[in-house]
Design a protein that fits this description.
The complex is a heterodimer.
Chain A (H helix, E strand, L loop, with lengths): L1 H13 L11 H16 L17 H15 L16 H12 L6
Helix pairs in contact in A: 2-3, 2-4
Chain B lengths: L9 E4 L10 H4 L6 H12 L3 E7 L2 H10 L7 E6 L3 H12 L6 E5 L2 H10 L4 E4 L19 H4 L1 H17 L4 H7 L2 E7 L2 H13 L12 H9 L3 E10 L2 E13 L3 E9 L8 H16 L2 E6 L6 H9 L20 E5 L10 E7 L5 E4 L2
Parallel strand pairs in B: 1-2, 1-4, 2-3, 4-5, 6-12, 9-10
Antiparallel strand pairs in B: 6-7, 7-8, 8-9, 10-11, 12-13
Helix pairs in contact in B: 4-5
The chains are: A mainly alpha, B alpha/beta.
């Protein structure tokens, strides 16, 4: 009992493998963000469509999107990563999530 | 460092034995003391919003407020049987105010304690203090502007707008287009400067530096040839939003330096900040100058950082930055601007540098 408690605490601080979103494939990441966007904008979004094309996106919405992506996938998006190009489409957001969670395996 | 208590932006009233004498359910014809009525009317004139949190039957209590001629002074009435901390929280959320700018007045110590326990930043007052509130510094904004006097009306229009937005079945962007939003950017006139100063005091989420510029400092800068103080106002088919934003820009031959950019929380959901940055980017591209912005992180202004970075501002090593000595705790964000299209959701009018600063529609 105590042992398993200790282990789960350790797991939650290292994110893996206790994090249920850890192994999500690209499509699942995009589906989650897509569902959030649909609820927020009352419109459906194809994976490659530019969310920001119309210039209608508010800073409030942009921030909600950033916070949603951060909290859902357990990442922090800061500095140069906090760029429009990383949030422009569902595809670019899933790429960002995978890169930030991969611990820089493309380095 | 001793920080002055922020001015109260909304006072939430209990009804029984606080706003009125007696208990509605037991006494029926409850009355309001003249001194208390005066407080309600005067706080309204000062631009302090007022709401209600009361344990009563909603319809009965509201009917009594209407008979007393006071209903119109209150927004977001929370009349029911739930915990008062919940009503206070709901009011703060709907207004998009930090709880540190909310005050609560109630005759019962237990109710005040319950609110203070869950929301320690809310300032609580006993009912005996009602008549004396007007003399307290936290209920005395340093300036009372035109917008302050009609603030309650502007919030009312805002709630109506929100209701329509919730009920609107199409895409949010289409809804925004249906509002006929107009943004006017103009050089600050004298009478607008006080409103601008007030904005830098009241806005925390959308203030890029957290720095407050005094009325006198802004007036001096408005007269300075190298500085532009721009006021942003908006309106839509529900009425005027009043002055909703301010920009302070220092112009040098190679760069425009954004020293202050703040927008009101009331217009954040319309994308006002993003549109403003887009307009400025376009104007800078036409003037062939780079944009440089100060950003100082506070607890509440991450939204502003997102706005800057999503507009393309980044940490950069451009030679134009050489003349900007870094201030402690302030980041310098940089953008090499390119021409931008106007937004699809609103019309924007602004001074056109090509036409000697005459106002023209951005098209």
């Amino acid at each position: 009992m105590t042992e398993s408690t200790t282990r789960s605490t350790a797991d939650s601080t290292t994110f893996e493998p206790a994090d249920p979103t850890a192994d999500l494939p690209v499509a699942a990441i995009e589906d989650r963000i897509g569902a959030f966007l649909e609820a927020k904008t009352k419109a459906t979004w194809e994976r490659e469509v530019d969310l920001f094309a119309s210039g209608a996106v508010s800073s409030l919405f942009a921030m909600e999107l950033v916070v949603f992506v951060e909290s859902t996938f357990g990442i922090a998006v800061e500095g140069p990563d906090l760029a429009l190009d990383n949030f422009r489409t569902l595809r670019s957001m899933s790429a960002l999530v995978i890169r930030l969670r991969g611990g820089g395996d493309d380095a | 460092m001793s920080e002055a208590q922020p001015v109260v932006k909304c006072l939430i009233w209990d009804l029984d034995n606080t706003l009125w004498r007696g208990t509605l359910i037991e006494d029926g014809d409850v009355e309001v003391d003249e001194a208390v009525r005066k407080v309600v009317v005067e706080l309204d004139a000062r631009g302090v919003l007022q709401a209600v949190s009361s344990r009563n039957d909603h319809d009965e209590a509201w009917a009594r407020l209407e008979q007393l001629g006071l209903a119109e002074y209150f927004v977001l009435p929370q009349i029911g049987w739930g915990p008062k901390s919940e009503s206070v929280r709901r009011i703060a959320e709907r207004l998009n105010f930090a709880t540190g700018t909310i005050a609560f007045i109630d005759d019962l110590p237990t109710e005040r304690a319950e609110v203070a326990y869950h929301l320690p930043d809310v300032r609580c007052y006993p009912a005996e203090q009602a008549a004396a509130l007007l003399d307290l510094p936290e209920f005395s904004p340093p300036v009372v502007t035109v917008d302050a006097r009609r603030r309650r009306m502007m919030y009312r229009a805002g709630f109506e707008r929100d209701r329509e937005r919730e009920q609107y079945r199409g895409a949010d962007e289409e809804f925004l287009r249906s509002l006929d939003l107009v943004m006017r950017i103009g050089e600050a006139r004298d009478e607008e400067i006080t409103r601008v100063e007030e904005l830098t005091l009241r806005t925390s989420q959308m203030n890029a530096t957290g720095v407050h510029y005094s009325d006198a400092a802004l007036r001096a800068l408005a007269r300075d040839e190298d500085h532009d103080v721009l006021v942003v106002s908006m309106s839509d088919r529900f009425g005027p939003h009043g002055a909703v934003g301010v920009m302070l820009i220092e112009k040098t031959p190679r760069t425009w330096h954004i020293k202050l950019l703040a927008t009101s929380c009331r217009v954040v959901s319309f994308g006002a900040g993003a549109v403003l940055l887009r307009w400025l980017t376009d104007a800078a591209a036409r003037a062939r100058v780079h944009l440089v912005a100060d950003f100082r992180r506070t607890e509440r202004n991450r939204m502003m950082e997102v706005a800057y970075r999503f507009a393309g501002f980044a940490d950069a090593d451009c030679t134009c930055l050489a003349s900007f000595p870094a201030t402690e705790g302030t980041e310098v964000l940089h953008l090499e601007p390119v021409r931008q299209d106007p937004p699809t959701t609103m019309r924007v009018t602004a001074p056109d540098p090509q036409a000697a600063g005459r106002e023209a529609e951005w098209a």
